[in-house]
Amino acid sequence: MLKTTEINIRDPFVLPMPSEQQYYLYGTIGTETWEGKASGIDYYTSQDLENWEGPFAAFRPPAGFWADRNFWAPEVHAYLGRYYMFASFKAEGVSRGTQILAADTPKGPFLPISEGPMTPRDWECLDGTLYVDAEKQPWMVFCHEWVQVGDGEVCAVRLSDDLSAAVGQPQLLFHASEAPWAQEIHPKGRSGYVTDGPFMHRLSNGELIMLWSSFSTGGYTVGIARTASGDITGPWEQDAEPLYAGDGGHCMVFRTFDGQLLLAYHRPNETPQERPFFVPLREEGSTLVIDQNA
């Protein structure tokens, strides 16, 4: 049994399973984040979000798999009776992209349902997430990386009903620099604005918002974008102040079995110190705030 503070992952994603009264935690294996070849994607299970069993294998690359490193940011979504993993992968000389895998249970084993990523083959992309609109049309929201475009982009592409193919071309939703709080970074002689980890959330008043990450004066940071149209294609506007600016990010939102809304993110952003954190949220007007009193 492991405590949350003993789990070294980035990009935590929690899938509650009410039928089991159990939470599944997925994430980027901390020790395999940046360098060398990746072994796969793991998960942990817990009944209380404090004590965890695992890690267990969720995905191991099959023979001939196109990527061998940077197995990043797995998300697992229940959709039409199966479980779909959105994860980003890369190989030497091949652009990073988000591929979709499927399994009959959240334990896996997850297997690819397409020949390669859903993102354009000549784009450097990451952090795909599932969004299903009011017409039950599935979309993938993802990031076009700053390392290729300078000013990182958040884009959306329609998916086929079975999630096995992209339909049409990606649509640009916004650039990182549109957020007043976002700051340019300058690592290894490069300069740019980062977009990471988009996650869609609909407020109880029906408004559609997106949580996403970049950098600010507080280090790695979570911000909120919103669309008054209620449609994924926008137009999107950025909140002036971030939701969280404490050198933590790549977040998602979920509800506990007793109905508490939680924000999951990793902190700090330095390898190998990253750990998953779960903090209470509440709706306040037409936004989310971290609930310091919960």
UniProtKB/TrEMBL annotation:
Belongs to the glycosyl hydrolase 43 family. Pathway: Glycan metabolism; L-arabinan degradation. GO terms for molecular function: hydrolase activity, hydrolyzing O-glycosyl compounds. It comes from Phototrophicus methaneseepsis. PANTHER family: ARABINAN ENDO-1,5-ALPHA-L-ARABINOSIDASE, ARABINAN ENDO-1,5-ALPHA-L-ARABINOSIDASE A-RELATED. This is Family 43 glycosylhydrolase. CDD domains: GH43_Bt1873-like. Pfam families: Glyco_hydro_43. GO terms for biological process: carbohydrate metabolic process. InterPro entries: GH43_arabinanases (IPR050727), Glyco_hydro_43 (IPR006710), Glyco_hydro_beta-prop_sf (IPR023296). The keyword Hydrolase applies.
